[in-house]
Every structure is written in structure tokens, then in C-alpha cells.
Write a structure and sequence with these properties.
The chain has 200 residues and is an all-alpha fold. The chain has one domain: Heme Oxygenase, Chain A. Helix content is 56%, strand content 2%. It has helices at 7-14, 16-27, 34-55, 68-77, 94-103, 108-116, 121-124, 134-146, 152-176; strands at 177-178, 185-186. α3 runs antiparallel to α4, α3 (34-55) runs antiparallel to α9 (152-176) and α5 (94-103) crosses α8. The longest helix has 25 residues, at 152-176.
């Protein structure tokens, strides 16, 4: 008997390359080290700052948990100001983006394990985001909803664009971050690059 994939499984296969590419970019960061962990948190803060307004278009019961507050708290614990954000928006499918942050999260368990190895007490104190179970608890909600979608192509495009957003934010933070120590900050121009920018 031929096995029929679920919608979630099919979405995973359709966007596997984008998932692996984004994951490999974040895997290069040493989350046990202050500098790299700051970049990780700040890039996620920028990405969520764009995605969370898009999630407001979803029914309340479908909206992912707000994560920018946790990320801002962790950056503050590291002595880093949150990066400034210019007005921008996510113009692809919000359900696809919600699937990304709930279902992938760039291998959260591996990231958490790497962060937990830190011998830096400052880094160890900044675990609100990685230590949160909010996205894990949200995942069954979005996965159940996705199984009933009709426009799988539209959702898969949202998945792809969400992965690309996280990559663009990571690239942008890497180029804008200075100096690399407690009390450092991000360049005031460290804003979200457009999808039409040279980072694409």
C-alpha cells in the first residue's frame, strides 16, 4: 500500500532545502559564547519583529506566542540593546511562517544544548527564549490546522519566505554588530533589509 504523506510532511519535503540552509547558517554560531549568542538573539528579535505583526492577521486561537519580549530580556541580560527596526512587513503567508517557528525553530533542542554548555554566567543568565516551552506547546495547534488547508502552494511559499527572513536578519546583524562585549550595541541602522535587497 502506498503511503500518503500528511500536509505537514509534504510541506517539510517541499521546503527542506530552505530549512537546511537556514539551519546551517545558525549552526555556525557558538551559542556558548557571548558574541555569537548575541548575534543569534538579535537576529531572531529582528525576524520576530517582522513576523508578529503578520500573525495578528490570524484568528486569535491560531496566533503563535509572542517571543520578542523574551528575546529582548535575554539581550538585556547580555548587556546588549535590541537592534533598531525600520517599518517592514512580511507579505507572504502567515500560516507558513507560523509553521516554521513552531515546527522547525532551527533544531531548538540542539541549540539549547549548545547554549547550556556555556561557562559564562552572563550567557547562562540569558535563557528566557531558548528555555521557553511556548513554541513547543503551540506546535500541535498549527500542525492540526495545516492538515486542513486547501492552498498548500501558498503556505509552502510562506514557509520558504520565513526561512529566508531569518537568514536575511542573521546576515544583517552580523554586518551591523559592534563592538563585541557587554555594554555593546547594534548600529542604529541595523534594520530589516528588504526582500529585494542584495542579501536575497
Amino acid at each position: 500500500m502506498r503511503h500518503t504523506m500528511t500536509v505537514s510532511q509534504n510541506l517539510f519535503e517541499l521546503t527542506r532545502q530552505a530549512n537546511e540552509q537556514a539551519g546551517s547558517s545558525f549552526a555556525m554560531l557558538d551559542l556558548a559564547e557571548h558574541h555569537d549568542y548575541s548575534i543569534f538573539l538579535a537576529s531572531h528579535y529582528l525576524a520576530y519583529s517582522v513576523l508578529e505583526p503578520a500573525f495578528a492577521s490570524l484568528p486569535e486561537a491560531m496566533r503563535p506566542p509572542v517571543m520578542t519580549g523574551l528575546l529582548a530580556n535575554d539581550l538585556a541580560a547580555l548587556g546588549i540593546n535590541v537592534p533598531s527596526v525600520i517599518p517592514d512587513y512580511f507579505d507572504s503567508d502567515a500560516i507558513g511562517a507560523a509553521y516554521v517557528i513552531a515546527g522547525s525553530n532551527f533544531d531548538r533542542r540542539t541549540l539549547l544544548k549548545r547554549w547550556s554548555r556555556s561557562n559564562d554566567p552572563v550567557v547562562a543568565s540569558a535563557g528566557s527564549y531558548l528555555g521557553s516551552h511556548a513554541l513547543v506547546e503551540y506546535a500541535p495547534i498549527i500542525h492540526a490546522f495545516i492538515e486542513n488547508i486547501e492552498d498548500e502552494k501558498r503556505v509552502s511559499q510562506g514557509v520558504y519566505e520565513a526561512f529566508r527572513l531569518f537568514e536575511r536578519c542573521l546576515d544583517h546583524i552580523k554586518s551591523a554588530y559592534w563592538p563585541f562585549h557587554s555594554g555593546g550595541r547594534f548600529d542604529r541602522n541595523a534594520s530589516i533589509p528588504s526582500r529585494k535587497s542584495s542579501l536575497i
